[in-house]
Design a protein that fits this description.
alpha/beta, about 40% helix, 8-stranded mixed beta sheet, two-stranded parallel ribbon
Amino acid sequence: MNGFRADTMADQTGRKVLITGANSGLGFQASLAFARKGADVTLACRNVDRGGAALAAIVEATGTTNCRVLELDLGSLESIRRFAAGWTGPLDVMVNNAGLMATLRATTTDGFEQQLGINHLGHFALNGLLLPALREAQAARVVVVSSIAHKRGMINFDDLMSQSKYRRWRAYCQSKIANLYFAMEFARRLEVRGEQIVVAAAHPGLANTRLSANMGRDPMARLTNAFMTLMAQPEQAGVLPVLYAATAADVQGGEFFGPNGPGESRGEVAMVAPAARVADLAVADRLWQVSEQLTEVTFPNLPTLVSN
């Protein structure tokens, strides 16, 4: 996989691709790359005006007529259900990309701590509701975008919404390890059922995606923004593990991709290892059950795996 670049992706003509948070950062770069390869791309964005500006840039760069913007607020289960209900036909590639990083404490429309609510629970619900569309495709691919910050994350079931004590980075790391627990458990359940849908995960290393712009204006936020500007690789490089996970023929369920450089911060695309605790099947199963209860979304005809 060394040497992989966006322009070396296989042709994607005829494939229907859904990318969340597609108006900027990794989501925009992924949308642009898929459009250049002929895919039918849906940019799922909370802010449709920003999504429209992103779409205009993609059309100008590629000349595509097969891309569109649809409104999707991952902080609202009502919006997620409305989006899923409006989807028709098969879904070949789903990139779960949208997210927040280390924001001041706030809650979603449904009362979830917003980093866990948007980064994990919103995508969990969306995948469950769109599973029938993924099954309609011949060889669907799902990519869950996590972060190297997951290595510092733990699921605190006693205070999942960080109500008793909120620390922005701890909440972010929890949401990012939740992404990996979800991706790996989703892959396992599909494999047990013998389905052809491949679920993989990816992280961009340190990528200057402007995600830190949502952190606010306090000293920590300014320091993080300055660090990312100076040290992070461009988003065009950060998106490569995501694109590889979404398109490469050799990707298998449960694999995780990121840069191969020091600390996985930059470098060529490589298979990387998640934190060892991601292999804890009991935590993965419990998080899945809690996520179903909180979102009131179940994944049709997927088996429940009993963890020891």
